[in-house]
Amino acid sequence: MAKVPVQFTLNGSEKAEFIDSGTTLLNALRDKIGDTSPKGGCQQGTCGACSVIVDGELRLSCLTLAETCNGTAITTTSGLAEGGVLHPLQRAFLDTFATQCGFCTPGMIMAAKVLLDHTPNPSRDEVVEALSGNICRCTGYEPIIQAVLTAARANSQNAA
Amino acid sequence: MALALQTFATVRDANAALKAQGTRYLGGGTLVVRAANEGDVAVSGLVRLTDPALSAIAVAAGKIRIGASVTMAAVARHPELGALAKAARAVGGPAVRNMATVGGNLFAPAPYGDFAVALLALDATITTDDGELPIEAFLSGRDSSRAIVTSVGFTLPKADGFRFLKVSRIKPKGVSVLSIAAVIEQAADGTVSSARIALGCMADRPVRAKAAEEALKGKTLDRNGIAPALAAAAEGTTPITDPIASAWYRAEVLPVHLGRLLLS
């Protein structure tokens, strides 16, 4: 099958690849570009482990075809740390023990980042709603909710 | 497995390409890419459209027209579609709502398709290049429907006229046990002058509770008034059995939830 070109910005740097038509964004990121931070969990849109941010919106990369992302700006968890310093969300996930096996964590962090980008000081209910498409089988969710609220507080203190 | 994706600018060209065997239309991807990921070998090619008209929401004089590519998230945040926000937010989690489209929801098999339940209660009209169809006729023929849905249209109900309820076991997001949408009009004395009630998960696709609608006419929305409608609620339904609930359970709890919706 003929390869098709795709081009997008991934975590601020330009990427261009030739892929098989119909390749999911998840497979393009992991297998072609080498960004393994989005995880392939259910491949059904149920678990949220593959969540990435496309042009500011949370999306499931396992159900998104890479070709439909031409010209977009994509953010993944691997692009959050700057100069070796973790993003406040990543820091908070570590500090509050919100990650155990870690498989759901990149998807959780993407969902939380979209929330904090639009709602810097979310209520607990808003955090629960924002994470409602992401499944975690280890933590029981409570430490994850606390991590997002902690990161939000850290953000507002920095801004003040 | 690789799927050849073809992109078109016009509905006519996309409809022509869809005639090839094994070709499916790609909206948000939450149904068709999911099927492909699951190993559905019947899907070998995908067609998508970039026509911006399919992503438009038009509100004029109480008439709503929503393009088929409009996402659940776009419906939920639209200032003039507040009445429908609850139904749009009932679909999936945030990421699914950023992807799942109004057109795609019309084809979602139970237990999915909560928004189509709302559209059925609203007596929406479904538009394709072949013309317009009432939603009831569209849903019953959807398995053999080949023309791309371009938009749905309906009249916005009066304030509080539209009611929607989704029952799920996991909060705030979970697959439907069942969903109910109702458009109830009341006369000046409070009695019901007309009722359209649509049910999700009570068949393989959204269906109307016609016996309950009839039983509500002329009644008041109180415990005694709605009793005959609740007794008739499951009449003619064939609920699905899935890991969320059995057909028996769905039929048992339907009157309870319909009662809550009507008394709310």
Structure description:
The complex is a heterodimer of chains A (160) and B (264). Chain A is α+β, with helices and mostly antiparallel strands and 160 residues long. Chain A folds into two domains: 77 residues, Ubiquitin-like (UB roll) (Roll); 72 residues, DNA polymerase, domain 1. Chain A is 35% helix and 17% strand. Chain A contains five helices and five strands. Chain A has a five-stranded mixed β-sheet, sandwiched between helices. The radius of gyration of chain A is 16 Å and the shape is globular. The mean pLDDT of chain A is 95. Chain B is of the alpha+beta class. Chain B folds into three domains: 46 residues, 2-Layer Sandwich (Uridine Diphospho-n-acetylenolpyruvylglucosamine Reductase, domain 2); 104 residues, 2-Layer Sandwich (Uridine Diphospho-n-acetylenolpyruvylglucosamine Reductase, domain 3); 102 residues, Enolase-like, domain 1, CATH 3.30.390.50. Helices cover 32% and strands 25% of the residues of chain B. Chain B contains eleven helices and twelve strands. In chain B, strands 4-5-8-6-7 form a five-stranded antiparallel β-sheet. Chain B has a four-stranded antiparallel β-sheet with strand order 9-10-11-12, with helices on both faces. In chain B, a hairpin with a 5-residue loop joins strand 10 and strand 11. The longest helix of chain B is centred in the last third of the chain and has 17 residues. The model of chain B has no long low-confidence stretch (mean pLDDT 95). The chains are: A alpha+beta (160), B alpha+beta (264). Chains A and B meet through strand 4 and helix 4 of A and strand 1, helix 2 and helix 5 of B. Chain A: Pfam families: Fer2, Fer2_2.
